[in-house]
Amino acid sequence: MGVMRIGHISIKVMDLNAAVKHYENVLGMRTTHIDAQGHVYLKCWDEWDKYSLILTQTDQAGLNHVAYKVEHDADLDLLKSRIEAYGIATTIVPADTLPFVGRTLVFNLPSGHEMHLYAKKEYVGTDVGTENPDPWPDSMRGAGAHWLDHCLLMCEMNPEKGINKVAENTKFMMEALDFYLSEQILVGPDKDMQAATWLFRTTTPHDIAFVAGPRQGLHHLAFFLDNWNDVLKSADVMAKNKVRIDVAPTRHGITRGETIYFFDPSGNRNETFAGLGYLAQPDRPVTTWSEEELGRAIFYHTGELNAAFTDVYT
Ligand code: M3P
Ligand code: FE
Question: Same domain for 171 and 213?
Fold first, then answer.
């Protein structure tokens, strides 16, 4: 029932050909569709639905929308009334407004980011299939990302003006969409302001995260890898392809994830993220990180947060 997982992310790029090359050769995705307007749709080898990434050529980088898949079509009606009862306007757009996707519930998070919920997307199967499958396909290339794992959205926070969209988004996701809070960073004199939150519907530590910043935006989209070795290998792939690496391989204190951050050619930040971290259960206690341990929460080894990491985003 309800939201299952992240389904796709639609982002803006400034050089479509360079972007397609990046997501194909570095992440290892495959183009599955190009529509009449020239939008490119891609999937990872271990995903079974038609696509998890939509690229739109325009004059800037950033997010168009992020979409989550719900289990049943009827969930859309239920969630529509819950979101509206919460005070957020929604619309339902008909099937095939986005190619290969069923009717879709569209609304904006309190932060302003556009979110879609849908129940159906054309099934094409993973690259290893479902009959006596191999553990990985011969078609695998680049980092061989398994699937789109999560996204992190930057949300406006301005304590002087009493604005905290991280807290507003978090409350909304929990109360209207039944997300669970796994981890949070609390700041302020009374240590009661959520400056960042990690939320889940799957059994991984997060399917979405919100971090405070001066304006709303997209911090990164993350792709799942199995383990630390695969993260290191993905760094080799990035070097081979002259990809701009933002943060060399390290571990997050939060989620225990093993990570690299890097940029696509338009400056959208990507992450290759490995490790289950821990099995996220609905009844788990919330992990809280304090302002003093912020560095270690984000980059566990050095414990140092560089300003560019939080200030630079699309
Ligand atoms: C992650 C993650 C920031 C923290 C990022 C953490 C932007 O990306 O996957 O846990 O401060
Ligand atoms: Fe991440």
Answer: yes
Q: Based on the domain organization, do 107 and 207 belong to the same domain?
A: no
Residue 36 lies in a domain: yes
Name residues with Cβ closer than 5 Å to ligand 2, which is an ion. 222, 271
74 is a domain residue: yes
3-state secondary structure of 132: coil
**Predicted confidence (pLDDT) per residue in 262-291, tens digit:** 999 999 999 999 988 899 999 999 999 999
Distance 34 CA to ligand 1 centre (A): 31
Model confidence pLDDT, tens digit, residues 104-135: 999 999 999 999 999 999 999 999 999 999 99
What's the domain count of the chain?
Answer: 2
Closest atom of ligand 1 relative to the 205 alpha carbon: 10
Closest-lying ligand to the alpha carbon of 219? 1
Test site for ligand 1: of 216, 223, 271, 298, most ligand atoms within 8 A of the Cβ = 298
Ligand 1: centre distance to CA 149 (Å): 12
**CA–CA separation, 139 and 125 (whole Å):** 14
Phi-psi region of 204 (alpha: psi -120 to 50; beta: other; left: phi over 0): beta
The sign of the CA dihedral 184, 214, 149, 251 is negative
Same domain, 92 and 19: yes
Predicted confidence band of residue 1 (pLDDT cuts 50, 70, 90): confident
Q: How far apart are CA 256 and CA 300, in angstroms?
A: 9
Catalytic (active-site) positions: 150, 206, 220, 252, 261, 271
Q: How far is the CA of 252 from the centre of ligand 1 (A)?
A: 7
84 band by pLDDT with thresholds 50, 70 and 90? very high
